[in-house]
Amino acid sequence: FPFYYELKIAFVAWLLSPYTKGSSLLYRKFVHPTLSSKEKEIDDCLIQAKDRSYDALVHFGKRGLNVAATAAVMAASKGQGALSERLRSFSMQDLSSIRGDSSSTVPPSVTVRTSSKQSQPKTSRSASEGTGSSGKC
């Protein structure tokens, strides 16, 4: 189509020009009568879209909360062992055995569980043999 871009620029200039008021003319002649005749249908479509969007928001909100709750429960159940191990590693029994306090109140028959990454505390065998216990709890 010859002179397409030139005609397009001229049309846009006609629409934007305050002297010709091309956009106002197009709106009054074509857009406003079409919108006025279809106003009822447009309002019905807007109401249906609003209802559908609210229902979709509620539906996906419930699903999102269910997924989040399930993930939280799964994380808590899987992480419970790791959490208790970490809390156990900071217990007073571990701290007293690391410091080497001889005045600790920990009975000699109690064994201290440590993870494989931590070094085993050194305990004297004479203390556990002196109680006469067989090593069973």
From TrEMBL:
Its main location: membrane. Signal peptide: none annotated. Belongs to the DP1 family. Residues 102-116 have a biased composition (Low complexity). GO terms for cellular component: cytoplasmic microtubule; endoplasmic reticulum membrane; endoplasmic reticulum tubular network. InterPro entries: TB2_DP1_HVA22. It comes from Todus mexicanus (Puerto Rican tody). One of its GO terms (molecular function) is microtubule binding. It is a multi-pass membrane protein. This is Receptor expression-enhancing protein. Residues 117-137 have a biased composition (Polar residues). GO terms for biological process: endoplasmic reticulum tubular network organization. Residues 96-137 are annotated as: Disordered. It is found in: Membrane.
